[in-house]
Specification:
Layout lengths: L6 E4 L12 E3 L12 E6 L2 E6 L15 H10 L4 E10 L9 E2 L3 E5 L24 H14 L3 E2 L3 E5 L7 H9 L4 E3 L2 H10 L3 E10 L15 H10 L1 H14 L18
Parallel strand pairs: 1-4, 1-5, 5-11, 6-8, 7-9, 9-10
Antiparallel strand pairs: 2-3, 3-4, 5-10, 6-11
Length: about 270
């Protein structure tokens, strides 16, 4: 393929609008069209592919995103590392809006999403015991610390179907389980990346407290407007974090992410 990239980022125009020399390409996949055209750029001598997972106009709600096409398009470009920032809610008082959480586990509460590339005839059981690349997670946490950002180096994200937000009962259940983060897009994105042998790291930017906090009537349940407001207020921090991470990503992964598929088949 003529166009290639080493690193993929699932993020909108706010992440690359400041870069020079960017250009768009269209990538076709066996799974249909990805969410939008892919923007290619160069950061610190590394070729980076940006794809807005919701589309440029945010036209795809979480349950309608073509996750398989998005990941396959990155693979077509020879991408080996995926950085996946997202807006997320907090389920615990100590995880505050404006914090960053580098998730190490997920809990899937979605339904009906196309979540594998392997529907047969070869049966494939990919391991997701530790679904996120430990090397990229450490790099993300260390970079946050270097930049003076409030960061939680691990956390469990519960992924809900959306597009609605949680009921108070659901949120209370998630919180009681000790899970830290709630989001609508982490699954099946992370699993599909693993099936394609790509390193994947999630960076959750906390924008709200889901339905609020017990005993804190002053904290209102999440609204779409509040999510956008807090996300935009922290966009520059997130953008700086991504650029610094990309500068420091080593050429080869020491965690063996590219080999997970080898142990997944009988």
């Amino acid at each position: 393929m003529k166009h290639q990239a080493e690193i993929g980022v699932f993020g909108g125009s706010g992440f690359y609008s400041f870069l020079e020399g960017t250009y768009e390409i269209k990538v076709d996949t066996p799974y249909g069209a990805p969410s939008d055209k892919i923007v290619l750029a160069e950061i610190a001598g590394k070729k980076v592919a940006f794809l807005p997972r919701h589309g440029k106009e945010h036209q795809y709600p979480p349950h309608m995103i073509n996750y398989r096409a998005n990941l396959w398009a990155m693979k077509e470009l020879q991408v080996k590392r995926i950085i996946a920032p997202c807006a997320a809610g907090s389920l615990q008082p100590h995880v505050k809006p404006g914090d960053f959480v580098i998730c190490d586990q997920f809990v899937d509460r979605t339904s009906g999403r196309k979540d594998t590339f392997y529907d047969g005839p070869v049966t494939t059981h990919i391991s997701t015991a530790d679904p996120y690349c430990p090397e990229l997670r450490k790099l993300a946490a260390d970079t946050c610390a270097k930049l003076g950002l409030r960061v939680h180096p691990r956390g469990t994200v519960v992924v809900v179907q959306g597009p609605r937000f949680s009921t108070r009962a659901e949120s209370r259940w998630f919180s009681s389980m000790g899970w830290e983060v709630i989001n609508m897009t982490q699954y099946p994105e992370v699993v599909l990346a693993r099936e394609l042998g790509m390193c994947y790291v999630n960076i959750s930017l906390i924008t709200d407290y889901d339905v609020g906090l017990e005993g804190r009537p002053d904290i209102a349940p999440v609204s779409h407007g509040e999510v956008i407001k807090v996300f935009q207020a922290n966009l520059e921090k997130l953008r700086t974090l991504l650029v610094e991470m990309i500068r420091d990503i080593p050429e080869k992964c020491s965690a063996g992410c590219e080999h997970h598929l080898e142990a997944a088949r009988l």
